[in-house]
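Severity: low
Component: inverse-folding endpoint
Summary: output formatting inconsistent between runs
Steps to reproduce: submit the following structure tokens with default settings.
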């Protein structure tokens, strides 16, 4: 039987492709080496705690995203984040500075000096400029001034990308913000004019794993192959010939019109492609993807002096601290901690301090103890702790990204039916993986 598609990977990207195909009656197989679906999504439910050691929240950008969740059967299951989530803190010069959704809160916060604030306000008068491949740090300093670049853009980049702003490329990491300079001559003017995207931060009562399970539900029996290793990938005149070995050692195979690779790029060297495809993928061999270790902790509410009235905090790299930032999940979504308790989630490592993420547990504990004492005034021992190591964690869209993406485009053009989709290109967020996967699945179903 000729399948419509074989999809490598049952992370959010692969599940979204497969679900869109399944909704249109297409026949697929999803090959996943792990014994579970969800990839980087990882929800722990334990004694009244709901801990996300991967993505904590999903950011919807409009009605199409909400409609997609409804298509997964989750319409009644979406939990909107508490209004407090709009408030984010930056930890700088020994204190937390709260920033609200209203840009004016930045001017009231004291995060920037008067000179820094005035320079930021002058952004609409800065002339267009910047060379192709301009880094996030250079773009931000040129448009917003050095102080705003260091105090605002830098922590956002380390929080979202776990990256180094002096290496990441602005147009690849933040394409929409980057485009505002060209379209409006100014980022601030561009943000003020035109309709504001209706952004919504959401979660699910059973955590992010509920999203992955909902996407996997229609695939379960017929399509999904968990615990399977791909043993052969080649194309002949009938289509893509794919073989895999199951957890029980049994061999299975299929012929498909399309082969969709959603496995992370750091796994591509182990995919059994022949020499017609492998050279394109070698471009990705040295793509940076630093490690991140997540240390989640549950505390008695009374042991945390801070109000935790926000989404969490991030720290500019210039502060020289060892923790990238800390989320306050129990302030953002309901039922993340038992009554009278709070959940905190610290991130360590990333592109600038990868070695920290690889420290042994006792050292990480000491580091987080010190961090939470300095930033939130926590001195008590936690009631619970969870440590999750992601190594590698997040792809870095640096100066080599353009060349690498070109190689993928050439591979796709040279091999009919071969497609790549995932956090390795086009966007690193969960919603991007899902939205792009849905679009690709619909395209392939119509092809
Ligand atoms: C610590 C952390 C926190 C994050 N927080 C957020 C957040 O709060 N909000 C947000 O929007 N995004 C967040 N992200 C990013 C988000 O998790 C990713 O955008 C998303 O998981 C990307 O999905 P994906 O399917 O491309 O990759 P993955 O989730 O990595 O899934 C890839 C799948 O491919 C499988 N695979 C591996 N090797 C093979 C192989 N040889 N063959 C077949 N399959 C294979 C893997 O087992 C996995 O199931 C976070 C990421 C991390 C690591």
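Observed output (run 2 of 3):
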């Amino acid at each position: 039987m000729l399948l419509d598609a074989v999809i490598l990977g049952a992370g959010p990207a692969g599940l979204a492709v497969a679900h869109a195909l399944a909704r249109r009656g297409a026949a697929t197989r999803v090959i996943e080496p792990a014994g579970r679906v969800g990839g980087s999504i990882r929800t722990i439910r334990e004694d009244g705690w709901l801990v996300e050691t991967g993505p904590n929240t999903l950011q919807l950008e409009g009605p199409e995203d909400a409609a997609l969740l409804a298509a997964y059967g989750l319409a009644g299951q979406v939990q909107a984040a508490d209004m407090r989530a709009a408030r984010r803190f930056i930890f700088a010069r020994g204190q937390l500075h709260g920033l609200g959704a209203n840009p004016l809160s930045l001017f009231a916060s004291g995060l920037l000096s008067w000179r820094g604030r005035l320079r930021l306000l002058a952004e609409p008068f800065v002339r267009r400029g910047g060379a192709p491949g301009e880094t996030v740090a250079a773009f931000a300093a040129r448009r917003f001034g050095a102080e705003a670049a260091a105090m605002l853009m830098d922590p956002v980049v380390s929080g979202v990308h776990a990256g180094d702003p002096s290496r990441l490329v602005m147009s690849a990491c933040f394409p929409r913000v980057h485009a505002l300079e060209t379209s409006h001559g100014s980022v601030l003017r561009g943000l003020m004019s035109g309709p504001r995207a209706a952004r919504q931060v959401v979660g699910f009562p059973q955590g992010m794993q509920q999203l992955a399970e909902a996407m996997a539900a229609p695939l379960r029996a017929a399509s999904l192959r968990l615990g399977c290793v791909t043993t052969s990938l080649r194309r002949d005149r009938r289509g893509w010939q794919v073989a895999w070995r199951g957890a029980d050692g049994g061999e299975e195979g299929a012929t498909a019109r399309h082969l969709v690779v959603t496995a992370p790029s750091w796994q591509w060297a182990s995919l059994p492609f022949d020499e017609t495809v492998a050279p394109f993928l070698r471009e990705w061999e040295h793509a940076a993807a630093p490690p991140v270790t997540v240390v989640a902790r549950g505390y008695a509410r009374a042991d945390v002096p801070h109000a935790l009235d926000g989404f969490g905090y991030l720290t500019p790299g210039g502060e020289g601290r060892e923790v990238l930032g800390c989320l306050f999940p129990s302030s953002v979504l309901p039922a993340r901690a038992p009554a009278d308790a709070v959940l905190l989630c610290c991130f360590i490592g990333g592109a600038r301090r990868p070695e920290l993420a690889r420290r042994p547990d006792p050292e990480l504990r000491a580091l987080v103890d010190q961090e939470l004492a300095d930033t939130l005034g926590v001195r008590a021992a936690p009631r619970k702790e969870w440590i999750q190591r992601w190594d590698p964690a997040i792809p870095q869209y640096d100066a080599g990204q353009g060349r690498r993406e070109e190689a993928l485009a050439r591979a796709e053009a040279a091999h009919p039916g071969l497609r790549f989709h995932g956090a390795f290109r086009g966007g690193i967020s969960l919603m991007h993986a899902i939205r792009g996967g849905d679009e690709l699945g619909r395209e392939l179903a119509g092809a």
